[in-house]
Amino acid sequence: MSGDMDKPLITRRLVDSDSSLAEPPSEAPKVGIVGSGDFARSLAIRLVGSGFSVVVGSRNPKRTARLFPSAVQVALQAEAVSSPEVIFVAVFPEHYSSLCVLSEQLAGKILVDVSNPTEQEHLQQRQSNAEHLASLFPACTVVKALNVISAWTLQAGPRDGNRQVPICSNHMEAKRTVSELVHAMGFSPVDMGSLVSAREVEAMPLRLLPSWKVPVVMALGLFVCFYIYNFIRDVLQPYVQEGKNKFYKLPVSLVNTTLPCVAYVLLSLVYLPGVLAAVLQLQRGTKYLRFPDWLDHWLQHRKQIGLLSFFCALLHALYSFCLPLRRSHRFDLVNLAVKQVLANKSHLWIEEEVWRMEIYLSLGVLALGTLSLLAITSLPSIANSLNWREFSFVQSNLGLVALVLSTLHTLAYGWTRAFQESRYKFYLPPTFTLTLLVPCVVILARGLLLLPCFSRRLTKIRRGWEKEDTIQFALPADHTHAQKTSQV
What is the dihedral of CA 272, 274, 279, 280, to 10 degrees? Predict the structure, then answer.
């Protein structure tokens, strides 16, 4: 390797400049690490900074010692695993067999497996890396931990990464020991059960935004549909019927016309499942019956759908600011000025259009500002500082305000255009009329649910009230036996 990639993650200069890595006291608990890679170096620095005495086992101590701070002892592997009771195995799983020569020194010790398989290895292998390590060293206690924490997170501290560290093992005492060690490093240990759960724990780093797949596919699908629809109306129709070449609109104009449609529909899809859930609860007369799977998954993805809506709305605002910078826009302005001079018109001021544009822009800014507030409060650092009532008020009430503002923004944009025959190109209605369908249904349904006849009943159901015929209790055949056991 050449260039920057052959440089170690933690350099000698970085290690020496950290004043917190002083020599630990002699009575500090000793921890061993087998391996000298990037993760081992970051782990050693974090352990030393947490008050532990660290000894690192390497096949070539003289070469790797300069990569570790002076507070860390670097020795041969056999020497490094002799005294510590807890040893982190920071080598690749394919090299586990090379540690079998240390079986006698490792007997009775706690081995912490920090490895992760590749996605292909995880699909092909039936057992986890931790279970494989346990099969090679039956005299040891294997604990799976710290595999979800990267070397950079260990180096920078838990404030820059997830604090939760899943831990699993077949021995409770070993889990307790490793949990205390993880907690001392500044992380939050989470008990995941026995070592059988290691396969699930090792799959966690392999997941690439699992909760975002469905919302992203939904947003891309809406974008493609609206983009094709706008292309037919704004580019293909003038080219076919009038012979005008407007393909220059593809990169900016069509994208800017499509983005608000996607943002508007996505925002309405955030609150539509809540309406459907309320209708189901009113129909069933109870809250204890499970929602259908599709509705349950939809409810769980509302946060991601809302953030994608904000992202599209933000892009729409940025594209709108760029519209006057286009050369085609300047050309249209020049043509308009020439036509005005040739027609001997003193001005082209149209009072109705001026008011429409002013109201349209004002409502758009207000809607984007409300969406920004919703996006900020969805961040964990902000959401954790709010109580449940505050969080519910922002996400529910202000979310509906944002939906209403977006609806008014769309109506102000349409104004009377929906009733002009020239707007129906290829007999297709304007795009904004299509986007109004779902949001208007959501707003109307939410308004109906606020009526006392529905809101009171829904409140009673969510507080535990049920219809009389919702749950029926059947008495056992032996009524006498039922009376005797009724108090149990």
Answer: 120
The model's confidence at residue 467, banded by pLDDT at 50, 70 and 90, is: confident
Tell me phi and psi for residue 165, to 5 degrees. Answer: -125, 105
Parallel, antiparallel or unpaired: strands 110-113 and 86-89? parallel
Whether pLDDT at 1 is above 90: no
The pLDDT tens digits of the residues spanning 445-462 come to 999 999 999 999 999 999
Mean pLDDT of the chain: 88
C-alpha dihedral, 470 to 471 to 472 to 473, nearest 10°:
-170
217-236 burial: b if 16+ Cβ within 10 Å, else e = ebbeebbeebbebbbebbbb
Q: Is the pTM of this model over 0.85?
A: no
pLDDT tens string 171-229 = 999 999 999 999 999 999 999 999 999 999 999 999 888 889 999 999 999 999 999 99
Element (H, E) at 380: helix 380-383
- Strand partners for 428: 425
Q: CB–CB of 111/121 below 8 Å?
A: no
Cα–Cα distance between 69 and 22 in angstroms, integer? 9
SS3 30: strand
pLDDT tens readout for residues 370-396: 999 999 998 877 888 888 889 889 888
Query: What secondary structure, in 3-state letters, does the chain show?
Result: CCHHHHCCCCCHHHHHHCCCCCCCCCCCCEEEEECCCHHHHHHHHHHHHCCCEEEEEECCHHHHHHHCCCCCEEEEHHHHCCCCCEEEECCCHHHHHHHHHHHHHHCCCEEEECCCCCHHHHHHCCCCHHHHHHHHCCCCEEEECCCCCCHHHHHHCHHHCCCEEEEEECCHHHHHHHHHHHHHCCCEEEECCCHHHHHHHHHHHHCCCHHHHHHHHHHHHHHHHHHHHHHHHHHHHHHHHHCCCCHHHCCCHHHHHHHHHHHHHHHHHHHHHHHHHHHHHHHHCCCCCCCCHHHHHHHHCHHHHHHHHHHHHHHHHHHHHHHHHCHHHHHHHHHHHHHHHHCCCCCCCCHHHHHHHHHHHHHHHHHHHHHHHHHHHCCHHHHCCCCHHHHHHHHHHHHHHHHHHHHHHHHHHHCCHHHCHHHCECCECCHHHHHCHHHHHHHHHHHHHCCHHHHHHHHHHHCCCCCCCCCCCCCCCCHHHHHHHCCC
| Residues forming beta bridges with residue 112, ordered by sequence position | 88, 143
Q: How many CB atoms lie within 10 A of CB 434?
A: 15
147: closest CA among 83, 94, 205?
205
Does residue 108 carry a pLDDT above 80?
A: yes
